[in-house]
Amino acid sequence: MTTESLPYGTENIMRYMRGFCQISDESERQLYSYLKPCKFAKRQLLVEEGRLSNAAFFIEHGMTRSYWLVDGMQITTSFSTEGAIVFSMDEIYYGKPSEEYVQAVEPLEGYSIDTSDLRHLVSENMEFARWWSAIHQYEYRRLHRSHKERLTLPARERYEAFQAQFPEVCRRALRSHIASYLGITLATLSRLGSKK
Predict the structure, then answer these.
(1) Residue 74: which H helix or E strand, with range?
(2) For 84-166, where are the alpha helices, taking DSSP H only?
(3) Cα within 13 Å of Cα(41), Cβ side
(4) Percent residues over pLDDT 70 in the chain
(5) CA angle 13–14–17, rounded 5-degree value
(6) What's the rounded Cα separation, in Å, for the pair 135 and 161?
(7) Among 20, 39, 43, which residue's Cα sits nearest to residue 127?
(8) What confidence tens digit (pLDDT) does each residue in 66-98 have?
(9) Which of 19, 65, 109, 188 suits a disulfide with 8, CB 3.0-4.6 Å?
């Protein structure tokens, strides 16, 4: 399988992956052999709480957000843009249904990979093993930083830190989703935005 036979290309996916570690052309071709094209409409769910999706999703074009549903309220936990891979941690690591949702914020084009194939790639290919470790280190650092900022920074500084770290998300995500991620009200976020 070549990039010409992949309907959306993989430029964003490979650029993102290679930002974490070296991926050879041979490993890239191996990845392509497992990918299946997928499309999601705006607001469509890729991952649902209480269900097994049996897949992870590479984003070539579009953006997602992950969230928990707590007492009927959506609590945004992360955003993912072009190149990223999204999946249920509960499913990948524990074989359990997801505890969160992943939703397309925009129309999304990308590729799915069966969770069993992803596990095989990561266990058998050293380059993918390094990439897998690197993205988890990155995600752990993001979660740690976000948790620290929520506990220690006032709302304005939290928002400014988010803008600096995720300018693309700030341009594309709904303000209500950003407010939820930051742990502030939409009214507070609107006031902060109006004072810029």
Answers:
(1) strand 73-80
(2) 89-94, 115-124, 126-152, 155-165
(3) 1
(4) 96
(5) 90
(6) 21
(7) 20
(8) 999 999 999 999 999 999 999 999 999 999 999
(9) 109
